[in-house]
Each structure stands twice: as C-alpha cells, then as structure tokens.
Amino acid sequence: MRVHICAVGRLRAGPERDLLDDYLTRFDRTGRALGLGPASVHEVEDRKGGGMMAEAPLLERAIPKGAIIVAMDERGQTLNSPKFANRLAGWRDEGRGDVAFVIGGADGITPVLRDRADLKLSFGPMVWPHMLARVMLSEQLYRAATILAGSPYHRV
Prior knowledge:
Elements: E1 2-8, H1 15-32, E2 39-44, H2 51-62, E3 68-77, H3 81-93, E4 98-103, H4 111-116, E5 119-121, H5 130-149
Parallel strand pairs: 1-2, 1-4, 3-4, 3-5
Helix pairs in contact: 1-5, 3-5
C-alpha cells in the first residue's frame, strides 16, 4: 500500500527536512517486506495567499484517485501507536492501494475536504506547526512498520 503525505507548503532544507527524509527512508526499508510503501510527499502551495479555500483544490489534486484519505486535524481521533499500526495493516489487508495523509496549512483543512476523510487523526489537542506535523507523521509511519515487523523500536 502506497503512502502519500499531501501537505501545504514547501519544506526547505534544514533539520525538519532531514528528519522527514530519514524517517521515510526507514519506513520504506521496513515497510517493503510488509506490503507498506513506498512513501512520497506531495507538496502544494497557494502562491496567492487564499488560505484553506484556495489550498483545498490543490490538496484534492494531490490525493490519488481511490485513496483512503486521512485528514490530520486537531479535532480528530487520537490513536496510540499500536492502534495506528493496526489501522494501516487493516487497510493493506483489505487490498487498498493508497492512503493519503492530508496536512493543511496555517488555517487547517476546509470542512468539505475534512468531511470526505475516511479518518480524522490528531496528534492531540495541541496545535502543531504543519511542517513539524510531517516529521511526527513520518516517525509514526516508521514506528507502525516496526510494530508490524515485530521490531523492538517501539517499547510499551
């Protein structure tokens, strides 16, 4: 199952980019044998500054047809890491080909796109910078793959 991170904004070179690349590389290596991956990042940018209403169609175009849509949203459901891993495995086992994690810009994701999501997922009630949310998501994807592989990376 291919994993897509569809996000508003361009992540420039720096520590966040390094972490994102590192965790996605780890996810790809670990997930390959499990039928997970590859992971890719699709960055969209509204150069006119129209906020979430202008960003929504750009995000829509970045989401592969037929993909499971996971909206990263502070109002979403919180899952612990094993439950997140099991959710990914369940979608994979159902034969789903793509899952798209959608990360909005500073104003979030439009209600219309959020309502289309198969899952609304939160990293907790705090608001996180959307650039850092990519890193946190990539680490959780890697952690999910290690849990499914039986690796000791995740300790309970």
